[in-house]
Amino acid sequence: MRILGLDVGSKTVGVAVSDLMGWTAQGVEIIPINEAVGQFGFERLKELITIYEVDKIVIGLPKNMNNSIGPRAEASLTYGRMVEETFGLPVDFVDERLTTVQAEKMLVNEGNVSRKKRKKVIDKLAAVILLQNYLDSQ
Question: Where, by residue number, does the polypeptide cross the bilayer (predicted)?
Fold first, then answer.
């Protein structure tokens, strides 16, 4: 069973995929989107679902620190409902508070990656972290 992990933002979607056993998450890519004009990257997402033979999708839910649902989390919930309706796959949501912060720290402290290069990979790494957290919890 392969699971696709998505870190959804207003301009990009970070993508990660599990191995066939559901033990590890690997980064795949960052899909450019434009939430403001209704471009959600579903064409590329469909290709990735087919390539990796995905059975389930996990989407990060960026809750507020007090556990409430804010505008960004609402947007992720809406994206998840659209994905579920479009592709007919089950969608789970996972609390992703601080995954981007964790990804940034990893890139700075362990990878010594420049700010310019971080912007190109941070969403993909955040998707890996949220998917790995999900896999570890199962």
Answer: none
